[in-house]
Amino acid sequence: MRRAKHEVGQRHHQEPVAAERLPRRLLVAPVAERIVRVRARAQADLAALALLRGERYTRNELAELGFELEAGELELVGGRQDQYAGALGGWLELAFSPSGVAVRRIESGAERTAALEAMMVLAFTGWNDAAAAKALELIGKRSRTATVPNTAALLTELQALMADKVGPFRADDKLQQALMKLQQMQQELGPLPAGATQYDMVCLDWFDLRNMLLVAQCVVRAAIARKESRGAHQREDFPGMLPEWDLNQCLSWRDGELSLGRVPAARPAAKAA
């Protein structure tokens, strides 16, 4: 840990680089997703261990150390941007270069949100009192005696399924197989969370996996419907790009049912000369 901290410190004490001159930028929003929460927890553990040894890390150092441990020591595939999102939080513009990472905080607001949505840079999940009430109702109905599903095994199965059947090169038969398997996994998970106490991790894992299965179904249903190849969506059975598919697909989930619609493709507003 001492060696890693020294190396990180060397990188981050270099002269700052102007953000506009950096070649690679990423926008990171405070989306409540599992991947960022896992990084935040891991970095909190690293910080606590460092304090026990009489050491202190900056948030940038924690992000870099987390990435080194994940990619180097554990040999896991992950992005440096996830580590920075977990360590810093909030709306960020991250610019990467060989000299280091430049971080700029972005002030959120209605105008900024509308601009990002128009460019399809970020996907936002609506959350309001009505949505919270439904989740609380599920928690209140959780079963204390039902068989607890093996969420870890289901998560591993879900990752393998999406990589194998819904990868960069897609075809209708594989997508249909994936959709059937996702519906089967949803049944295995069950309609109500398990767990005996209010803050039971079993209950939290149920909600996490339920959301993952829902997102996976959204991806698969949209991929089945789009009978062309465009961008990262490549259909082996529909290799060409069709002008009638120059549009966005929108999925909504109401009363436990997914519905798929189409809207004109959003375009960024033209700047005045």
Describe the structure.
With 273 residues, the chain is α+β, with helices and mostly antiparallel strands. The chain folds into two domains: 2-118, no CATH class; 129-264, Methane Monooxygenase Hydroxylase, Chain G, domain 1 (Up-down Bundle), CATH 1.20.58. It contains nine helices and seven strands. The strands form three sheets. The chain has a three-stranded antiparallel beta sheet with strand order 1-2-3. A two-stranded parallel ribbon has the order 4-5. A hairpin with a 2-residue loop joins strand 2 and strand 3 (100-105). The longest helix is centred in the last third of the chain and has 25 residues, at 201-225. It is globular and about 60 Å long. The model is unreliable at 1-33 and 120-125 (pLDDT under 50).
Any chance you could write out the topology, listing elements then pairs?
Layout: H1 2-12, E1 24-28, H2 34-52, H3 59-73, H4 80-88, E2 92-97, E3 100-105, H5 110-118, H6 129-140, H7 151-165, E4 169-170, H8 172-189, H9 201-225, E5 234-235, E6 247-254, E7 257-264
Parallel strand pairs: 4-5
Antiparallel strand pairs: 1-2, 2-3, 6-7
Span from first to last CA? 53 Å
- Give the low-pLDDT segments: 1-33, 120-125
Helix content: 40-55%
CATH fold group of the largest domain: Methane Monooxygenase Hydroxylase, Chain G, domain 1
Average per-residue pLDDT, rounded, comes to 75
Question: Architecture of the largest domain, according to CATH?
Answer: Up-down Bundle
Tell me, briefly, the overall form. Answer: globular
Instruction: Please give the domain count.
Output: 2
Q: Per DSSP, what share of the residues sits in E-state strands of 2 or more residues?
A: 5-15%
Strand order, sheet with most strands: 1-2-3
Q: What is the H level of CATH, i.e. the homologous superfamily of the largest domain?
A: Fumarate reductase/succinate dehydrogenase flavoprotein-like, C-terminal domain
- The total count of strands amounts to 7
What pattern of helices and strands is seen along the backbone?
A: HEHHHEEHHHEHHEEE
User: What would you report as the Rg, rounded to the nearest angstrom?
Assistant: 22 Å
- Structural class designation: alpha+beta
Main sheet attributes: strand count, strand direction, barrel closure: 3 strands, antiparallel
CATH class of the largest domain: Mainly Alpha
The number of helical elements comes to 9
